[in-house]
Amino acid sequence: MFPTVSHFLKYLLGIDLPLPFNTFGVFVALAFVAGYWAFSEELKRKEALGILHAIKKKVTIGNPATTTELILNGLFGFIIGYKILYALLNYSLFVSDAQQVLMSTKGNIFGGIILAALFAYWDYKEKDKHKLAKPKDIEVTVHPYQLMSNLIVWAAIWGFLGAKFFDNLEYWDDFVQHPIERLLSFSGLTFYGGLICGGAAVLYIARKNGIKILHMLDVGGPGMMLAYAVGRIGCHMAGDGDWGIPNLHPKPFTWLPDWLWSYSYPNNVVNEGQPIPGCVGKFCHELIPSVYPTPLYEVIICLILFAFLWKIRDKIKAPGLMFGIYMILNGIERFCIELIRVNSKYHVFGLSFTQAEMISTFLVIGGIALSAYALRNKNKLA
Predict the structure, then answer these.
(1) Do residue 226 and residue 340 come from a single domain?
(2) Same domain, 100 and 233
(3) Beta partners for 137?
(4) Which of 105, 231, 268, 366 could make an S-S bridge to 31, C-beta 3.0–4.6 Å?
């Protein structure tokens, strides 16, 4: 396993290069890149077909930088400089525990002041360069795909908050015992929480810019499936705890690699399992007995499902149908994986189920309802 990028580089190239990047975080970033690409391609395609349209907006040019803008840029620069210089001066600590450095109140005042001044000065000079004696209003054309930068930022912010919120609901007892640690931790993220809250933010911004909700949902179906698959690569490579239950069964096929059937997640990032003999360092545990590598199963399944959605997107004409299909496929995939995955269970009226099983069930039901609605009203919704 590769808890950090440094572990991966050492395994791949044999070089020991201390870097403050954890593997899971890198793949989360790559998941957003993958989603950005898929969303943008779909927005361009739907605009070319005349389904979506560019909008006109009025913007004012020639204004100098305002006091509020200078203060906000300076504050942003101060936070970055405050942390960056401290991290560089304490690089060993930053590499060993970047989260502790970033989430603590520790920093370097001098670095904060320098970058605050630079950021405010840069904003002032940029606005001054284009300042007009008399500011004027102009009309600009905004194409749907040009909204992606704004959409991806808000999806990331609200997706992270939603993922943390749903994760703390799922592990409520642990949250009650360690509220501060769980709130400030970058680990412990629930996919469906991120999907619901991040998706809501995207729909809100899209609707404000003239994109109908059903069309935006259809745009997101393939992209979310791809992003999920890429993110799960990070879960598997880091060993972040999203693995399966112990797998003591013999392989059904001799040609099947051992690591694809049952895996011990050595050097996992959450330090679960038993100590590895002779291992020295921060990540020295592995699972005994080995478990189903469920993140890897989800990577394979979701890449196949993405390819399927991408293939049929030209044939889908009813608004909402693509997302309905995505909901059904995503719900079935996750529900099946939950059967062999480690997770916290709720116990209600004699029933035992996980949070993901409950949400995936609603997804399948909702997907069927949405698909039926889309097909029944395809002429009205177009």
Answers:
(1) yes
(2) no
(3) 60
(4) 231
